User: Fold this.
Amino acid sequence: MYLSKLFIPILKENPSEAKIKSHQLMLRSGMIKQSSTGIYSWLPLGFKIMKKIEQIVRLEQNKIGAQELLMPTIQSAEIWKESGRYDDYGEEMLRITDRQGKEMLYGPTNEELITEIFRSSIKSYKSLPQLLYHIQWKFRDELRPRFGVMRCKEFFMKDAYSFDLTDEEAKKSYNKMFFAYLNTFKRLGLTAIPMAADTGPIGGDLSHEFIILAETGESKIYSDKKIIDVDISKYTTKDDSINELRKKYDSYYAVTDDKFNKENFEKNVKKENQLITKGIEVGHIFYFGDKYSKPLKCSVDLQDGKKVDVKMGSYGIGVSRLVGAIIEAKFNNNIMKWPTSVAPFDVVIIPSLQKNDRSNYTKSEKIYNHLKENDIDVLFDDTGENLSSKFKKFDLIGIPFQIIIGSKSTDDKFEFKEIDKKSETLSIEEIKNKILNKRNSN
Amino acid sequence: MYLSKLFIPILKENPSEAKIKSHQLMLRSGMIKQSSTGIYSWLPLGFKIMKKIEQIVRLEQNKIGAQELLMPTIQSAEIWKESGRYDDYGEEMLRITDRQGKEMLYGPTNEELITEIFRSSIKSYKSLPQLLYHIQWKFRDELRPRFGVMRCKEFFMKDAYSFDLTDEEAKKSYNKMFFAYLNTFKRLGLTAIPMAADTGPIGGDLSHEFIILAETGESKIYSDKKIIDVDISKYTTKDDSINELRKKYDSYYAVTDDKFNKENFEKNVKKENQLITKGIEVGHIFYFGDKYSKPLKCSVDLQDGKKVDVKMGSYGIGVSRLVGAIIEAKFNNNIMKWPTSVAPFDVVIIPSLQKNDRSNYTKSEKIYNHLKENDIDVLFDDTGENLSSKFKKFDLIGIPFQIIIGSKSTDDKFEFKEIDKKSETLSIEEIKNKILNKRNSN
Assistant:
């Protein structure tokens, strides 16, 4: 892609309404545009990053055998009345009356609808377990939306639901999701810590929030520092292995505000390991047994003809929120560096271009074409801006690798820089291999 | 995927509410489930097919240089008041009042919002032309939703928008989309005919509908038969080449009902070539100049400092509707055959399984693993149903290739059948190559 063709409206100044760095960066680098309070359009740069995150979330769900489907955004109020949540949910639910006077709503979550799909499709215990998920837009009519995509009204979320015969089986499904979440966040370049959490309006008695440490976070957390060092790469999707991993995590104190108990914290965590900080919630998983299956009469037939309510859990990842969360984690000293797994481009070519000298332009184009042929997604800054403005711009756009065609580049060796690292002078083949190696290690 | 694990609630009988064959097939083969009147959930089988269609639509948009972004589903009423369509649009627009009493709506289309994005981002004529698109859920509060996903309330649509400096340039953008649409439908295995059409509520003076011939269609069409034989493979994305293609199409009479003129039809089309039939609209493109840019004050600066309103067009493809349209075109004599480009699986293994004899199961599993290793997406019917029930089921599911492990298969040669064709006895290598060849030719 040539930068001059890219639809990327970059702002020179921080917009006054943006209070945190992810919101500032997303507006300034033309990733999003507010369309009305708390509702955003995703412009090409932001859209591309969000889609890459979505795809990683999807692949990790598929890996544990979850099946993807898609529920609509608009739901009938009826099933919410069946579950009893229609009145409970409060004003955050966007309620709609259609032209025929029917009560509808924009789904803020999908426990009711998935239960309805399940109960009318699955009749026998033999079809269990089932893990189903979808990635769909949700709406919460926030009174005070803020922090850009971190707390907005219309947001993109992966929500999964598990259906099991017994509590014991259900815990296995819960653990599978627990493991999938850790792998997902790792692929996104994030260290997310699972913390015992309250279940809130979803209900149930077992729940974990996945939290990224960040001073700008809204969740207060209390934890044993050593939990950060748990290495998930040694574990597999086998039930026993995941069980061990769960135990490992459970051996460290790590809770959100709601669950905090000072005495326990001080008893269980050595002074020097006590971590009291803030974090951003990027995932939340729940086990709630028959909370929805009972009122919604979602049961299966057992071998002996008896019926039993299925045991359910639900599992959410905020896909659009993750875009902001990654920025909060990776945007430091006014320089952004996207993890290679979700970077909007693999590499950018930044030439110094003079009006009367086409040589750098020609050189850049040659490199561009060569990388393209090798299936590398490259951006070419073909604009007439001077180098220092270009660098400032790419500090915001955050493409992890840069090829700089200026004084340090010769005819066949070019200045190559990974953000945060010293620049090197490399041939085009060396550059190509570096990028491909880095990409393949994701 | 093992069929016993797949979430695919198959119905034995045609549901009484389904009047046309696509609606019947989609319900019976567990592709969709109605969640409320005119609103559907997409179950794994249907979802997978829709996603493949979406991806083909996307790739053909990218090929002509269109850039993808994503606008939200919920819009503010304000910009619709600016354009004057808020009052015009009628009851099909789902109008919403949020908790703060603000007038919102679920977007039925996005001319206003994209114009708003454009006008606040692009200031200079130098940034033109621009082609922007998104693939997003839309809502039309149909009074009488019917025919399943063909005329429902919540639907998935690709809508693109072009921005140009002059009428002449804008026609080039229009032609590019015209060409992309023909290529898209061809890759989907469809013969779509571009027909001059009325512009309706979108406005403008140039418009084509892309129509698939089908007796169940809602659009009446009048055409010269010979238009079906136009071969698009000879043309390229170059302006001149597309222009020639446009001329070629324009040389044949082909219009929808609104544009029909009996005298012209009889004068221009030989008796034996007169085609009067019905069709399904799968795409619609519009050129409307400054219809939206003028009221919304969407202008760019010219070199001499003057401002000029940009010239716009819009271009829609009904992605969810296409799932139904393909079925209407390909489901004949109670047998469905998905085009390989969008088939839910590349191939299905259908073994005859006996309780006391594991040999066919083992044989099937071996084939399954071998195909999987070769990146072939294969479904294995591991259920205990008898062969004739299995065949009936796969007549509905419509996977284009079948490997039948029954009396005609030996230890290393297997019955291989492409739907509609005679079966052959082939080795696993021959089968693999056949499938890969077919897939690569898409």
Remarks:
- Chain A has a mean pLDDT of 95.
- The radius of gyration of chain A is 24 Å.
- Chain A touches chain B through 54 residues (CB under 8 Å).
